Hints:
Blueprint: H1 2-17, H2 23-37, H3 42-59, H4 63-78, H5 83-95, H6 99-112, H7 117-129, H8 133-146, H9 151-161, H10 167-180, H11 186-202
Helix pairs in contact: 1-2, 2-3, 3-4, 3-5, 4-5, 5-6, 5-7, 6-7, 7-8, 7-9, 8-9, 9-10, 10-11
Amino acid sequence: xxxRQHIVLGLLSxxxxxxxxxxxxxxxxxxxxxxxxEPKSWQAYNDLAFALCREGRDTGDLTWFDQxxxxxxxxxxxxxxxxxxxxxxxxxxxxxGDFKEALRAAVELNHKTPDDIAGWGLLVDAxxxxxxxxxxxxxxxxxxxxxxxxxxxxxxxxxVREPFGDPEGAIEFLDEARRRTSPNDLDEQAWLLKQKxxxxxxx
Length: 203
């Protein structure tokens, strides 16, 4: 697996020089570089898995989630119950469309750490995937109650407004999320703009 990742890294380097690399792919490259420097770091594997999930989300290519799962297996080998890896596991399940298992795992995490807004965000996504819109709305509200003004809260509020037939409200929440997202987080900024354009086109 590592040999394959090194090949991917080399290809990304060439594309970066040619100006063809995406922000998410740059994130993968940074994570790979850290992993080469710290091959026994479970956090480095988590960083790589996160970057691969971002690329999977942005492209819709499920093979990125397969690579993220491979990175997480190494993370769990080094730190069997690390919490960040468990959240990323749910993200992979969501990316693969396994919403029932994602909900089960997200509920377990939420019971373990109920004040973690990221865990509530996973519940939002899993419930939306299963068509549990009322539950998703409840979970999104928990984020806003726990961390008023949080970027994640506005992102998930936007996701909830769409199935309720309120694209204008969803766009307003996305605009607020963009204002609160670091300009250095280029892949997240690009994804938010893409979601806004999709909603605007569907109105």
